[in-house]
Amino acid sequence: MPACGDRTLMQPLLQVRDLVVEFPTRRGTLRALDRVSFDIAPGEVLGVVGESGAGKSMTGAAIIGLLEPPGRVAGGSITLRGERIDNLPPREMRKVRGKRIGAIFQDPLTTLNPLYTVGHQLVETMRTHLAIDAAEARRRAVGWLEMVGIPAASERIDAYPHQFSGGMRQRVVIALALCAEPEMVVADEPTTALDVSIQAQVIALLKRLTREKGTSVMLITHDMGVIAETADRVAVMYAGRVAEIGPVRSVVKAAAHPYSAGLMASIPPLSHKVDQLPQIDGAMPRLNAIPQGCAYNPRCPHVFDRCKVERPELLQAPETRAACWLFDSDAPRERAHV
Amino acid sequence: MNAVSRFLDSDLFYSFRRTPSAVISAVVAAVIILGAAAAPWVAPYNPFDLASLDLMDAFNPPAFMDEGSLAHPFGTDDQGRDVLSAILYGARVSLVVGVSATAFALTVGVLVGLLAGYAGGTVDAVLMRIADIQLTFPSILIALLIDGVARAALPREVHDQLAIVVVIVAIGISDWPRFARTVRGSALVERNKEYVLAARVIGISPARIMLTHVLPNVLGPLLVLATLNLGLAILSEATLSFLGVGVPPTQPSLGTLIRIGNDFLFSGEWWIALFPGLALVAMVLSVNLLGDWLRDALNPRLR
Amino acid sequence: MSEPPIFEARGLSRHFDVSKPALQRLLSREGRRTLRAVNEVSFAIPRGTTMSLVGESGCGKSTVARLAVGLYEPSGGQALFEGQDLAEARKSAAQRRRMGMIFQDPYASLNPRWRVADIVGEPIRAYGIAEGAGALREKVGALLRQVGLSPADGNRFPHEFSGGQRQRISIARALSSNPDFLVCDEPTSALDVSVQAQILNLMKGLQRDLGLTYLFISHNLAVVRQVSDRVGVMYLGSIMELAPAETLFTTPRQPYTRALTEAIPDLDMVGKDRQPVGGEVPSPIAPPPGCPFNPRCPLANDRCRSERPALIPARGTPETLVACHAVEEGRDSFEARAAA
User: Fold this and answer.
1) What backbone torsions phi and psi does residue B182 show, to the nearest 5 degrees?
2) Could you read off the pLDDT of A98-142 as tens digits, one per residue?
3) Which of chain C's residues have a Cβ under 8 Å away from the Cβ of B199?
4) Which CATH number fits domain C7-252: 3.30.460.10, 2.70.70.10, 3.40.50.300, 3.30.420.140?
5) Does a structural domain hold residue A335?
6) Chains that touch B (3 or more CB pairs under 8 A)
């Protein structure tokens, strides 16, 4: 199944097909991701949005091979430039992670080792993955710190993570994720822990660097504003499935799936005051109580009989692809338009 | 759903069923506790009934040896006492002392810990420094000290009557700082949680907040600690009794029995010390394994 | 003025002693260190309105929230509840019941060991509002219905609810003593956006129906714009700008307010780049002399670096109170921008 229209000609960098992640528990197996499919093209920024528990972080963790046990990939495939990476032994996966896929997490302290200087960590990472000597690695490490905007980089290189502020630490993490020149970066809520003014700085930095290096980015966040400014395309996730995927402008301005439309509408605008914010009633179902058919059907204002029985796959909508029966051109529609 | 079926359906019980060491420990502990509690009814003889003792029965070996008989499955001691019966009665004393000492330490520790954790500041500093000083003394030393003072201060008959209470207090006093520190630590965390702030906004009194809000939320770690401490308290009592400063010989505990047996260990009558020793090991080990399981099961990070 | 404002802060300050323990201090020859979390803050909230405080983490907005319900004692200045000293007012249960608080974390704000009915009923029992078990149950049921839950939910435990539902429970608890004044400390920042809209709509509806007065604390400017009548922007413990909500968002005056409004990622900014404000928030333990924003401010001059600006009516928009020398001196080219 080819991805979105204008990118079909380009060989995708990352292909995720029908990815299923399961968690065995005592009360049966929970499906955290249910047949998730999407592509990321070289140099593209794919935003992944959704509410907590929608499976967006889980998707990122599955791609970099860091699912928390007992979670496991139970179906589907993840391929990086045509090469399967979802079934690699841990040793091989460690090589892919770092060298080919970098990772940035919400809390910089989960990535940085508090016992080593940031310079040491940059040099180690580069020397593990690139064929360069120690002097060259150190020279490049200073360069990376300058690039991510650490003042007095040649001195700060010998500082420990705790000697940096939160925003500066996240800059170091970005340098660490990019220094081995990976083809792609998975950034999971990279700015959520930061203050608004710092958040803008970090996003601008991430955007600039990945554009310069031609690195693809999977940007996972709950903040639609960040996605709108940064992403080329957006995947909206709901209850472990992709509800809609398409160009960022279309998803933000003209979402096809009723869930994405509701989600965008419920974001309070900064530009004006509204009397009553549009809201989606109810809450996302828990993993052990996902309804039959479309997972969104109990909250959907456009629900009809088929939605309660049959699960929709991603269908071609006017500007995007949406998992919604409203866009099934083969079957007679019971409702005309959204 | 009633309480029993809710318990059977709970995550705790599920984790229990899935942990073989916990199940085995629970069975062993249950056998020992039931046997000890029902000693007067299940023990073949009453080892304290001097009239029933017959010196002709002294030093009978256990039943599985050539000269042994089923009348005394674990043999008899130098007085002709049935070792199995002595163990059952001795376990009773050990358990009573262990449980009471733990309960004593728990009560003192919870009160001190809650007070220190909630009051903070100077009160906290003073109470915790006392606990620190207490912790630098080996508990056995404190127990010996209290026992010595009690012996010196009380007339002999009174002391013999109160011996068990003295042992309980001695062990309890040496163990309370552990509880106090745990409760204080948890109370410090809980008191800054928003549900406690909500109660403060309403104007609920600090004492009430501590008892109705904070205490129920520190029960988990407290239960684990109490279980582990029970094993230690039983051991402390056995050590004290072995050293001859514990319970009086008229009410022998497992420790007393081991001390008696110790005299015969190298003259061939090994069973007099060995079987009470095994009973002690089984009791403490099963309690400790249960405590370990409980700690893991209640730790949300390991779940 | 016939009626005093429900809540008023007059030069309110709160300092925290963050010194190391005495022994360590002695060894390393350090002095005491004081964190000035809130520094001479003044504002008033008229009855039935919403006043918001916005700012980044560490700006002191949550400390003001806690001062406003008496969880902290002021280090200086005064907190007044209907013109009466707050600490004095809180000594009487009849006054105390008229104020309540809604917290940020829907997971930490409900006692996990209590049933929902007991949580919501706690203030009712504490203030003796309903007589007898039947009346209590009825009142709790009505409160749960009021926040969009069902009376049967009272028998369940907090962990059985989603974040949004827990926040509804938290609101029901705050409402249960029939309060007039609610302090809401980041009530939606832990929630997903679609649920955030539910909670904001619920809070607005309750304000309309019950005539509530809110002190609303948030770091989210868009949310603040939706709920507020007046907004105070805080930075390093001080209010930098205080204005009617519409004025603040249409004509922000303080350079910090302007930087903040421009930093918000916006749905209308699809694919656009922006020049974010540089620098970081200084430590409130060692704030810069003069205006707290001066190290990051493009308009800072020597006066800004030495003299702390007072909160005074702004030139051009007198309904705005602003603490800025540049605005006072006309160095902020406000007239030029307004003309453009």
Assistant:
1) -60, -50
2) 889 999 988 888 889 999 999 999 999 999 999 999 999 999 999
3) 122
4) 3.40.50.300
5) no
6) C
Chain B environment of C66 (Cβ under 8 Å): 197
- Please check whether residue B95 lies inside any domain of the structure: yes
Tens digit of each residue's pLDDT (9 = 90 or more) over A184-207: 999 999 988 888 778 888 888 888
DSSP letters spanning A227-257: HHHH-SEEEEEETTEEEEEEEHHHHHHS--S
Residue B153 has what pLDDT?
85
Does a structural domain hold residue B33?
A: no
- List strand residue ranges (DSSP E) for chain C, in order: 7-17, 34-45, 50-54, 76-81, 84-85, 99-102, 181-185, 213-218, 230-235, 238-244, 312-313, 321-322
CA dihedral A176, A178, A181, A182 (to 10 degrees): 110
Interface test with B, best of C7, C16, C92, C111 (most B CBs within 10 A): C111
Closest CA to A283 of C105, C165, C107: C165
For residue B48, being part of any structural domain is answered with no
pLDDT value at residue A200:
82
Instruction: Tell me the residue range of the domain where B159 lies.
Output: 73-302
Number of domains in chain A: 1
Residue-level pLDDT at A283:
86
For residue C182, give how far its alpha carbon lies from the nearest alpha carbon of chain B (Å). 11
**pLDDT for the residue C253:** 93
Give the separation between CA A253 and CA A274, rounded to whole angstroms: 18
Confidence of residue A10 (pLDDT cuts 50, 70, 90): low
A165 and C280 in contact (C-beta within 8 Å)? yes
Task: Give the H or E element holding residue A103.
Answer: strand A101-104
Is there a contact between A33 and A77 (Cβ–Cβ < 8 Å)?
no
Position B14 in a domain? no
B197 to chain C, any CB pair closer than 8 A? The answer is yes
Alpha carbon of C86: minimum distance to chain A alpha carbons (Å): 32
* Beta strands, E only, C174-229: 181-185, 213-218
Residue-wise pLDDT for C227-239, tens only, equals 999 999 999 999 9
How many angstroms separate the CA atoms of A191 and A35, rounded? 28
Q: Which residues of A touch C56 (CB under 8 A)?
A: 195-197
Domain membership of residue A291 as a residue range: 258-269+277-327
Check which CATH number belongs to the domain holding B168 and give it: 1.10.3720.10
Do the Cβ atoms of C103 and B199 come within 8 Å? no
Contacts of C275 in chain A (CB under 8 A): 204
| pTM for the structure as a whole | 0.86
pLDDT at C340 over 90: no
Torsional sign, CA B258, B259, B261, B262:
positive
Q: Does some domain include residue A320? A: yes
Domain count, chain B: 1
Closest-CA distance, C290 to chain B, in angstroms, reads 34
Task: Please say whether the dihedral angle defined by the alpha carbons of residues B139, B141, B146 and B151, taken in this order, is positive or negative.
Answer: positive
B248: cis peptide before it, omega within 30°? no
Residues 6 or more apart whose CB falls under 8 angstroms from that of C251 comprise C317, C320, C338
No. of helices (H) and no. of strands (E), chain C: 14, 12
Contact C173 B198 (CB under 8 A): yes
Q: Domain ranges in chain C? A: 7-252, 253-340
Angle of the A166-178 helix axis to the A118-129 helix axis, nearest 10: 10
Q: Does the residue A187 lie in any domain?
A: no
CB-CB neighbors (< 8 A) of C273 in chain A: 204, 207
- Res B56 pLDDT > 80: no
Nearest to C280 among A167, A263, A274 (CB): A167
Q: Is residue A317 part of a domain?
A: yes
Type of residue numbered B253: S
Whether B200 has its CB under 8 Å from any CB of chain C: the answer is yes
Alpha-carbon distance of A157 to A33, in angstroms, equals 40
